[in-house]
Amino acid sequence: TVVASEAFTGNPRRQLAKLFSVSLKLTVPDEPDVEPLVEPGKFGDYQCNNAMGLWSIIKGKGTEFRGPPAVGQALISSLPTSEMVESCSIAGPGFVNVVLSAKWMAKSIENMLINGIDTWAPTLSVKRAVVDFSSPNIAKEMHVGHLRSTIIGDTIARMLEYSNVEVLRRNHVGDWGTQFGMLIEYLFEQCPDTDSVTETAIGDLQVFYRKAKLKFDLDQEFKEKAHQAVVRLQGGDPVYHEAWAKICEISRNEFAKVYQSLRVELEEKTEWERETWMVVEESEGARVIFIDGFSIPLIVVKSDGGFNYASTDLTALWYRLNEEKAEWIIYVTDIGQQQHFNMFFKAARKAGWLPDNDQTYPRVSHVGFGLVLGADNKRFRTRATEVVRLADLLDEAKTRSKDALIERGKDKEWTLEELDQTAEAVGYGALKYADLKGNRSTGYTFSFDQMLSDKGDTAVYLLYAHARICSIIKKSGKDIDELKKTGKITLDHAAERALGLHLLQFAETVEEACTTLLPNVLCKYLYYLSEEFTKFYSNCQVNGSEEETSRLLLCEATAIVMRQCFHLLGITPVYKL
Ligand code: ARG
Question: Using 50, 70 and 90 to split pLDDT, how confident is the model at 252?
Fold first, then answer.
């Protein structure tokens, strides 16, 4: 057998898969296409599930093996010797259980402590991706749906960035048309001297929008003018273009406040301001694309010559693929837009822009999410008709978390600045975590009481857990940075070993969350990490024990991994609470 020296990549699942791919080649040389199936194990630390599938492939081909357990046994025998594997055994119908070497696990963690958590970052096969997220509609309210897109999109971007992907964070300005004609025409009416158009002329854009809409609905002549304005705007008329740019500017300033509070970075792009050259057909004066499986065609250019949502998306896609050279383009919107994305993805395939196989790169993915619900189980609103103002919502999260801190007397212990920063970190963190922790395709009920509770699966609980670990380390009086360099970890106690294993599963969890585009996978990992830590801490004395150094290092490693999770989820950690 080959002796494999395993580098400490911090990704045991991948490393084991490599070992098993060697043993697969040796065991069944005639089946070179079989990929290793390795996953966290129910009995061992990991398991390899190839034996059963292999058996069904080879049993009809005159194989020497007698059933799946024998195949599994052969996989074990030809597994390269590696310092990472302690032992292997067969379970059930032919699963290969793998027990990792505790010594190797300890060394891997020591290594991370010395070289940093970035050495555990997974490497994906994509080099550059676009994450199209947030994307509120200019001149309209940015609502909780956009907040969800902002939070989920930011996390996906962060996870990909950590995994060595270059991410183009894009705020897509695409939903335009009639509403712009209406606003521009109304602006010209209110303010005939276009040079003097300023923020004050428009005032509150929401109010301005409502007034324009009222006129649009009542005044037939105005309505006609507004439609003409759209055509002139899209035809590139400079006066209309300038008015449009001003409205966008004002709108953008509003959105920027929310992004600043949430510390989300993204870049606005209007890729559609160029020509779209599609193979299209005529239908009732419009240019359309007929797509298999859909009864109505996708309208690309409307009968009046205007563009719509689909046309801007198609042009943007062309730009992202050909100019920006993105290999993976990810769209984060509510699940209600799934049909739009399905159709537009198919149109792009029909045009030959994307490969037919939707798993092959360049690739597009729609990340759909469910509704944010109020206590009444209906779409979240403050009053029956009004949408929730995001800035107010963020303020409330912060105020409530500040009140809770004051109730615990923190205003007497901390400076005003500390109080404010902590309230913000906890409040916004709670809001983000509540949005991310469930499977995104289902909706969730928005509740300040629930998300700000310090018990259960909440950011508050997790932030506390992290702060507590930091204080354990501090109380030891040891210089942890010095210990990191020289100290050794041992994983003798079952609770130490379980915590160590969970720490080592960080990289593969991030990888899974990236490939499935499911941030809740990472939330679950983080929650379990805090549970494993609690078990460890209640079973193993840290300060003053014989194993103090090793255990302090385990505390430190847990804190580091927790902070990296917080970072990926867009949550600011706090060090005391
Ligand atoms: N502006 C749209 C909305 O508010 C979302 C845009 C999503 N991105 C896209 N490329 N279609 O619903």
Answer: confident
Sequence-separated (6 or more) residues with CB below 8 Å from residue 54: 24, 27, 28, 31, 34, 68, 71
Measured in angstroms, how far is the CA atom of residue 369 from the centroid of ligand 1?
Answer: 13
Q: Which atom of ligand 1 is nearest to the CA of 173?
A: 1
User: What is the residue whose two structure tokens read 């509510």?
Assistant: 334
Interface pTM (ipTM) of the complex?
A: 0.98
pLDDT greater than 90 at residue 376: no
CATH code for the domain defined by 3-100: 3.30.1360.70
Looking at CATH, the fold of the domain delimited by 128-372 is given as Rossmann fold (3.40.50)
Which pair of structure tokens corresponds to residue 326? 């993105």
Q: How far is the CA of 3 from the centre of ligand 1 (A)?
A: 53
**Best CA proximity match to 38, nearest among 468, 410, 511:** 511
The domain spans of the chain are: 3-100, 128-372, 390-569
Tens of pLDDT, residue by residue over 160-174, are 999 999 999 999 976
**Chain-centre distance for alpha carbon 228:** 41
Structure tokens at 396: 């409330």
CATH architecture of 390-569: Orthogonal Bundle (1.10)
DSSP annotation of 358: T
